[in-house]
Amino acid sequence: MSDKIWPNVTLVQHPVIQQDLSRARDVNTSVEDFRRLVGQIAGLMAFEITRDYPTENLVIETPLGPATGRRLARELTLVPILRAGLGMIDPILQLLPAARVGHIGIYRDEETLEPVTYYQKFPPNIAETDVIVIDPMLATAGSVNATITCLRQYNVNAIKVLCLLAAPEGIENLNNAHDNVTVFTAAIDERLNDKGYIVPGLGDAGDRLFGTL
Q1: Which of 23, 33, 117, 207 is catalytic?
Q2: Which of 3, 52, 68, 112 is labelled catalytic?
Q3: 108 assigned to active site
Q4: Per-residue model confidence as pLDDT tens digits over 128-183
């Protein structure tokens, strides 16, 4: 794990998250268990990423009379990067059921390691919402950077990134391209290998989520 500190990175070290992440890393973990663990980690991390979201007063009627409560002051849009990001979306929606969901499809060219965008669909009011970009791995940051660049074209300003693992190289690449985006991750691993995979990482998250190894 890297010992460098980046001001735009929040390392979520909750004991349950770290336990689940250790089990997800295990090569012997089944597809069923891997999918469950990734979802559980994503749901727990959603608490952290929304910790500082603005709220506003809400007057409600309880069985015994009126009370003043709180609600989120801005709408949220979740943007999972296809396909692996889909494995994290449902548990987050259980916590944030009113959130909109946009989708972007990106794959990495295995020769150049450059991202290729093949699909995008966002809510029409996305510029008026806070956006959480969701992907299990921040490796080279190619897919995340391409997603943020696309969102900027829709005048989106409030963007956070939620991932399970990050590589130092990916964090640096993201900082160089978009220095005002905060990353929430459960671990920062050692490095990337020559194929652009995080080491020690957990393998290909999409293949392990959907059983396409």
Answers
A1: 207
A2: 112
A3: yes
A4: 999 999 999 999 999 999 999 999 999 999 999 999 999 999 999 999 999 889 99
Q: Which residues partner with 58 through β-bridges? A: 69
Domains, the chain, ordered by start: 9-57+71-210 (3.40.50.2020)
Cα separation values, 17 from 39, 48, 117, 194, 211, Å:
11, 11, 31, 28, 23
Tokens matching residue 139:
């490796």
The first and second tokens of residue 116, run together, are 């290729």
The reported pLDDT for the residue numbered 2 is 57
The pTM assigned to this predicted structure is 0.91
pLDDT, average across residues 190-210: 91
Number of residues written out for the chain: 213
What are the DSSP calls for 182-200, one per residue? Answer: EEEEEEE-SEE-TTS-EES
Residue 196 has pLDDT above 90, yes or no: no
Query: Of the listed 36, 108, 117, 182, which one is catalytic?
Result: 108
112 in active site: yes
Q: Is 3 a catalytic residue?
A: no
| pLDDT tens profile 19-67 | 999 999 999 999 999 999 999 999 999 999 998 888 999 999 999 999 9
Q: What is the DSSP string of 63-128?
A: TTEEEEEEEESS-EEEEEEETTTHHHHHHHHHH-TT-EE-EEEEEE-TTT--EEEEEEE--TTGGG
Of the residues 35, 100, 182, 204, which is catalytic?
204
